[in-house]
Amino acid sequence: MKLVIFDMDQTLVDFISIHDRAARELFKQYFDVDARLTEIDFAGRSMAENFLELAKLKNIPEDKIRQNSEVLLNRYETNFSESIPPRASKYVLPGVKPLLEELLRMGHLVALYTGDSAAIVSQVFKATGLGKYFKFSVYGTEAKTRADMVRLAVKRAESLAGRRFRDKDVVIVGDSVRDIECGKEIKALTIAVATGFHSEEELRKHKPDFLFGNLKDYKQVLKAIG
C-alpha cells in the first residue's frame, strides 16, 4: 500500500476559468479593481497566498487583506458556488477517473491536498462526483506551507491505516513546481503532470521522479507509482 496524494486544480480538474471569475468579482466588489487569478503564479499556492499576491500586484495594502481574510474567503466561496455548474464532468481531466479507480482497486490510500478551502472542495466533489475516491482531504486553510500540508496528510494517513508511510511510500501527484518541491522535502516520489500553469519545461527543471504531459495514459502513471 502506498499513500498517493493528489493536488486538485489543473491536476484532477480544470476550474481555473471559474476561479478566475470568482477572484475578479471579489476584487471588484471589495477594492473596485480588475484582478484575475491568472495574472499571478497561483499554482500550488493557498487561496490566502493568492489573495495577497493579487493585492500586491494591484497596489492594495496587505493589511486590508489580512484584516478581512475570513470575509474575503467567504465571499470568494460564494462567488465560486454561483459560477460552478451542478454537473461538471467535462471539467474532469482525461485519465483521472480510471486512474483513481485503479488505485483504489489496488488497495492504495488516496488523499487530496489543495490550496482551496473545504467549501470549494465540497462544491467540486459534488459537481464532479470525485469525492468517493478520496479517503480524506487537506486544505490550504489548515497549514502554512505546502510541505506542512503533506506532513499533515501523512500523519492522518498513518492514523487511518495503522502503519507508517515514509519516503517513496508517499507519492505526490501535481501540476506545479511547488508540488515537486514539497515532495522532495519529505523524500516522496514526485509525479508532475503538465496540465497546469507551469510548463513541461519548468516542471522538468525541478527534476520530478516522473513527468507526464497529462494523466490520459493512466496505466503508465500506475507503473510510475509502482
Topology:
Layout: E1 3-6, H1 16-31, H2 47-57, H3 62-67, H4 69-83, H5 96-105, E2 109-114, H6 118-128, E3 136-139, H7 146-161, E4 170-174, H8 177-185, E5 189-193, H9 200-205, E6 210-212, H10 218-225
Parallel strand pairs: 1-2, 1-4, 2-3, 4-5, 5-6
Please characterize this protein's 3D structure.
This protein is of the alpha/beta class. The chain folds into two domains: 3-14 and 88-225, Rossmann fold (3-Layer(aba) Sandwich), CATH 3.40.50.1000; 16-83. Helices cover 48% and strands 12% of the residues. It contains ten helices and six strands; from the N terminus they run E-H-H-H-H-H-E-H-E-H-E-H-E-H-E-H. It has helices at 16-31, 47-57, 62-67, 69-83, 96-105, 118-128, 146-161, 177-185, 200-205, 218-225, and strands at 3-6, 109-114, 136-139, 170-174, 189-193, 210-212. Strands 3-2-1-4-5-6 form a six-stranded parallel β-sheet, sandwiched between helices. The mean pLDDT is 95.
Radius of gyration: 17 Å
Low-confidence stretches: none
Count the helices. How many?
A: 10
Mean pLDDT across all residues, rounded? 95
Name the beta content range: 5-15%
CATH H-level homologous superfamily name of the largest domain? HAD superfamily/HAD-like
Named CATH architecture of the largest domain:
3-Layer(aba) Sandwich
Share of helix, binned: 40-55%
Q: Span from first to last CA?
A: 10 Å
- Regarding CATH, which class of the largest domain? Alpha Beta
- In one word, what is the shape? globular
- What is the spatial order of strands in the main beta sheet? 3-2-1-4-5-6
What sequence of helices (H) and strands (E) makes up the elements? EHHHHHEHEHEHEHEH
Secondary structure: number of strands: 6
| Structural class estimated from helices and strands | alpha/beta
For the record, the count of structural domains works out to 2
CATH topology of the largest domain: Rossmann fold
The major sheet is characterized as: 6 strands, parallel
